[in-house]
Automatic annotation (TrEMBL):
Domain of life assignment: Bacteria
SMART domains: HTH_ARAC
Organism: Pseudothauera lacus
Gene Ontology molecular function terms on file: DNA-binding transcription factor activity; sequence-specific DNA binding
Residues covered by the HTH araC/xylS-type domain: 190-290
Keywords: DNA-binding, Repressor, Transcription, Transcription regulation
Protein name (database record): AraC family transcriptional regulator
PANTHER family: HTH-TYPE TRANSCRIPTIONAL REGULATOR NIMR, TRANSCRIPTIONAL REGULATOR-RELATED
Bilayer-spanning residue ranges: none
Pfam families: AraC_binding, HTH_18
């Protein structure tokens, strides 16, 4: 049934962008000779890149705008100050929380190896998704990487030589980047998955597990049991990770801590600060990279 046209005095609601596919990854395949390849894509808010996977490793970074990257058992909020490492073969989908300048780096991985050219005994942490703190140098290096597809005119020897130097520095910066626990685990159980997605959409709608359980049609006791079985944590512990991820997204908009605390349902900035200190072991101004007032 067609919808009525808006009246001239009322602005039309903007439709969400149609989902898009991963664009031509086969034209940016990393090799031993070119171990790091870069792809640049400008995408508007609410755009969804459909689930896909690669045979190589990947790092997603937005130099402007916040993105949400989802894997089968978790989701990650990635602002410009962070990047997400995705190991080979992991299915992932991307949603633009804001208009974003999405930079994707693809990494050659020798057979059986995983990581940014790390020693074999240092590979294990890189065999799972990792949120990395992005230094100013790493962000600048990513911006400078040529994002030229293989079907374009061949790069000159000088450009290839510069790409090789940039690649070596990117790998060095990644090896030294601080990993941040910002992922939010997601369950397989459909009932619990629906509840978790509702919390991700609006974590302040209810203060207690009982309120969320009522929305899902299950008892609080059942939901608490499912959290322990599916995610190995309590609801409060899991929701705290959601709050931290949301705080990171809000901080990317340069909001001060008192505004972030209020929007996330805290009565005072000090209560919010205490939670952040307990969770990540550092003051929120340092964790979020924002001003205190």
């Amino acid at each position: 049934m067609p919808m009525p046209s808006p009246s001239p005095s009322a602005p039309a609601a903007q439709a969400a962008p149609a989902p898009v596919t991963a664009v031509t990854p086969h034209l940016f395949v990393p090799t031993r000779e070119r171990p790091v390849r870069a792809k640049v894509r400008q995408l508007c808010a609410a755009t969804q890149v459909l689930p896909h996977r690669h045979a190589w490793a990947q790092m997603a970074i937005s130099t402007t705008g916040v993105i949400r990257l989802s894997v089968p058992r978790g989701t990650y909020i990635v602002p410009p100050s962070r990047a997400l490492w995705i190991p080979p073969g992991v299915e992932h989908a991307v949603t633009m929380v804001e208009d974003a300048d999405l930079r994707t780096l693809y990494f050659y991985q020798p057979p059986g190896r995983c990581g940014p050219d790390v020693a074999p005994d240092e590979e294990e942490p890189w065999r799972q998704c990792r949120v990395l703190q992005v230094s100013e140098l790493l962000r600048a290096l990513v911006r400078e990487m040529p994002g030229v597809a293989d079907d374009a005119a061949p790069l000159s020897p000088a450009v290839l030589r510069r790409e090789a130097l940039l690649s070596a520095l990117i790998l060095e910066e990644m090896r030294n980047a601080h990993a941040v626990r910002l992922g939010v685990d997601l369950p397989r159980d459909k009932r619990l998955r629906h509840l978790c997605e509702a919390v991700l959409a609006d974590p302040t709608r209810h203060d207690t597990l009982a309120g969320w359980a009522r929305d899902s049609g299950a008892s609080a006791r059942t939901v608490a049991r499912l959290f322990r079985q599916e995610l190995g944590s309590t609801f409060s512990q899991w929701r705290q990770q959601v709050i931290l991820a949301k705080a990171v997204a809000l901080a990317a908009g340069r909001r001060p801590i008192n505004q972030i605390a209020a929007e996330l349902g805290y009565d005072s900035p000090s209560a919010f600060s205490a939670m952040v200190r307990r969770a990540v072991g550092m003051p929120p101004a340092r964790f979020l990279g924002v001003r205190q007032d």
